[in-house]
Write a structure and sequence with these properties.
The complex is a heterodimer of chains A (about 110) and B (about 120). In chain A, the strands form two sheets. In chain A, strands 2, 4, 5, 6, 9, 10 and 11 form a seven-stranded mixed β-sheet that branches. By secondary structure, chain A is mainly beta. In chain A, a hairpin with a 7-residue loop joins strand 9 and strand 10. In chain A, about 0% of the residues lie in helices and about 50% in strands. Chain B has about 120 residues and is an all-beta fold. The chains are: A mainly beta (about 110), B mainly beta (about 120).
Chain lengths: ~110, ~120
């Protein structure tokens, strides 16, 4: 079946612009995670949804970052007033009910100029 | 505070060799330990994972060894091939009610397998 998909794959934003990154999880997966991966580093947790409920947003680096999953499937990560330090790959992962495995999408590479 | 420490940072082996990547963790509440493989421009792909109730798990050419008392686990790749050249990440998480929870990753190991 189809894996996790993310769009766009690449995004270039001027500093100060708002961006929206989309994640389509694997069908039937109730858990959805966003991670940020800086160049040459491991992914770092941003936020977690179970269905439409955002249960943990402790990893969001500032109040410029906002995530939603209104119908419990597709999720959007929004970054307002982008800064250069926001440049990274943003990864989405989903997990099946009562499953430990997390399956990652290809990521969105965000470059802020 | 880095909760999962991974070593080495990079590793070069010859084809057929057995690269070993090590990870150490601090949080004794972690109860799920996966390894991911990542190729350039791709997302991490789950390779193999272990729970702390076993000391070893094998899947194909990949083996995890787990030492609960030492809070360490390692990945062994048997008969390594040039196609195994990638970055490998260990990770750990705390399960909650049987469901996975956020992963804490190591910094990664860049493996190169020479032909």
């Amino acid at each position: 079946g189809a894996g996790v998909s993310q769009s766009p794959r690449y995004k270039v934003a001027k500093r100060g612009q708002d961006v929206a990154l989309r994640c389509d999880p694997i069908s039937g997966h109730v858990s959805l995670f966003w991670y940020q991966q800086a160049l040459g580093q491991g992914p770092e947790f941003l936020t977690y949804f179970q269905n439409e409920a955002q249960l943990d947003k402790s990893g969001l680096p500032s109040d410029r970052f906002f995530a939603e999953r209104p119908e419990g499937s597709v999720s959007t990560l929004k970054i307002q007033r982008t800064q250069q330090e926001d440049s990274a790959v943003y990864l989405c992962a989903s997990s099946p009910p009562f499953g430990y495995e997390q399956y990652f999408g290809p990521g969105t590479r965000l470059t802020v100029t | 505070q880095q909760q999962v420490k991974q070593s080495p940072q990079s590793l070069i082996v010859q084809k057929g060799g057995i690269p070993i990547i090590n990870c150490a963790y601090e949080n004794t509440a972690f109860d799920y330990f996966p390894w991911y493989q990542q190729f350039p421009g791709k997302g991490p792909a789950l390779l193999i994972a272990i729970r702390p109730d076993v000391s070893e798990k094998k899947e194909g050419r990949f083996t995890i060894s787990f030492n609960k008392s030492a809070k360490q686990f390692s990945l062994h790749i048997m008969d390594s091939q040039p196609g195994d050249s990638a970055t490998y990440f260990c990770a750990a998480s705390i399960g909650s009610g049987g469901s996975n929870y956020k992963l804490t990753f190591g910094k990664g190991t860049l493996l190169t397998v020479n032909p």
